[in-house]
Amino acid sequence: MFLVWYYLMLNVIKKLSRLRREPDWLLCWRLNAYYSYCFIKEPDWSYAKQHQNLNIKLCLNFIPIMNLCSNVDVILNSNSVYLNLSKELKCLGVFFTSLSKACLIFAVYVRRYLGFVVSVNDNYYSALNSAFFTDGSFIRIPAFAGCPGVLSSYFKVYNVGFQFERTLILSSFNSKLNYFEGCNSNLNCVAIHAAVVEIVIQERASVKYTTLQNWSKGSMGILNFVTKRAVCFGKLSKIVWVQIELGASVTWKYPSSVLFGKFSRCEFYSFNVSNFSQIVDTGTKILYFNSQCNGLILTRSVLIGKCVNTFRSLILFNSEYCKCVCKCDSLILNKDSLNLILPYVNFNSKTSLLNYESVTSYITYKQLLYCKQRGINQSDALKLIFIGFSYEITKRLPFEIFLELNKLLNLLIF
Amino acid sequence: MLDIKNLTVLLGNNVVLLGLNFNLSKGEICLVLGRNGSGKTSFANFLIGNKNYKFLGKFAFDGKSFTNCDELRMAKLGVYLAFQYPVEIPSVVWIHFLKLISNKLNLSFLKDKLDFAFSIFGLNRGILYKHVNLECSGGERKMFELIQMLVIEPKLCIFDEIDSGLDCQRLRVVFKFIQYFCLKHRSLLIITHNFSLINVLKPDSVYVMYKRKLCFFREFVNLSFV
Questions:
Q1: Which of B75, B86, B92 sits opposite A375 (nearest CB)?
Q2: Which residues does B226 contact at the CB level (< 8 Å), separation at least 6?
Q3: Alpha helices in B30-126, H assignment, sequence order
Q4: Cα–Cα distance measured from residue A329 to residue A193, given in angstroms and rounded to the nearest whole number
Q5: Residues near A116 by beta carbon (within 8 Å), at least 6 away in sequence
Q6: Nearest CA of chain B to the CA of A385: how many Å?
Q7: What is the ipTM of this complex?
Q8: What is the pLDDT of residues A1-13, one digit of tens each?
Q9: What is the pTM of this model?
Q10: How deeply is B183 buried, as exposed, middle or buried, from its count of CB atoms within 10 A (0-12, 13-18, 19+)?
Q11: Among residues 135-194 of chain A, which lie with CB inside 8 Å of chain B?
């Protein structure tokens, strides 16, 4: 039974590769990924069990082949951005295309760096993604280029199935990039979204990667398992992760940074709101492999309604004179929710510093009484506190997105 | 304006006030003294409609009588309490809070009030951008209670120990401000431990909270027990 399934999947991959007209080396890469996928056990820790049993076993046997070759499941706004900024981008020498085009045109870069940051056998979902990915973004910034404005991609999921996307961002010496990713889906859209984002940063470059995810929630929602990692190779490089999570039934997402260059910095800002029995399991990993590196983690989470929120942080100090400041805050607005903040720190150095603080709070009757006594009714007071709580992180978004997000947040509390 | 007869106030299972009779007319300055734990703050909390307190008896404000506690309703009617220990709201900035409170949609109105308040109290504008009561000193918290009162313009102002925690210079300014703030349609109820207020403010009536009741004092001969 297993052999039949195995050969069926192999054929699916070969067909997919042929339909997308991919070069041979990519097919070999996919097959490699598939072999490692066969040997990795599906993760069964965490609270997502009841959701997992529903879908994965069923759908893997009947992958809808129609979705494999078309771009329907991943709608990138790169087309319009490409057209709008294309002259400026071309003058600067910036490449911003879809990954499938990049495999043909910029094969040199893709071949070298695909799977470099997030290896194929890193985890179950990265192996799955590497074998079956359909499309994604590819960005390469040449040396000394500062990207004008914000490069953005919009991902929309229309129908049931699997969404596998990959993003590959390469930045060279002394370049700057501001990247925004917006994700959305139809209501009642059950899908597994397993994406992989890889970022390679060379010396003196800085990348700011902003994500706003508003997938559909509830029992018929999206399962969001994403692997994101940035490697700061050169000296003085910098990565800034900003993520705003509003949706997805189950989220397993841990944007991590690996600091290989001396004096490199990483910052991680995250704001997540969970409601409607969502299971949000986010976190970050910061691995210090060179001295004098800095890290900053600032997360705020709000639990409205019956949900589970976990924040895991893994900080590995492997060299001297590194510093990390971590502040995790949460606001609980419901008695039935569960909030877990789990740090894991590994000190292999004698001179590094870690500053860790975690505060969990709820809105007390006295605070509401203070507001009500001044004439502010209960829902206005809750909105005031909620938006004020989010401001520290949402202020780092591009301005138009910030305005839209505030309107959206006002609707979440009623 | 305020008409209370035979009031019993309960906090949980404890009886805090028993058989209390109280009358307050418009434009009256009233002082309430009493021992620690005698029920002055509970009386103030009951007046603003704190849901933790249950009451029995007759309670009428401006001719309308009520049987249950509702904070918003009392706030809309014009009752204001300057808290003794103002609570912290960590994620809200003062300037946003004050904008939300001010009833008039005209923002220049708020600006005029703030300019007036800052000039007489001697504060600098930078404190407007602090989080509500979070990084403020004790004096600043009390000042903000007064500023909110200026913005709201209530009909009944209750001060819960406004003079504790203020230095002498500020105290003088605050007492002057309170005197001028009391107009024909506005009455004040000041809870304090300070006797000198009787000479400074020249209140219309002085009450003492004693044995869960309010007793009216016209001549204060022997006040050694308060």
A1: B75
A2: B33, B34, B35, B208
A3: 40-48, 71-77, 94-101, 107-121
A4: 27
A5: A198, A200, A231
A6: 6
A7: 0.92
A8: 678 878 888 888 8
A9: 0.86
A10: exposed
A11: none
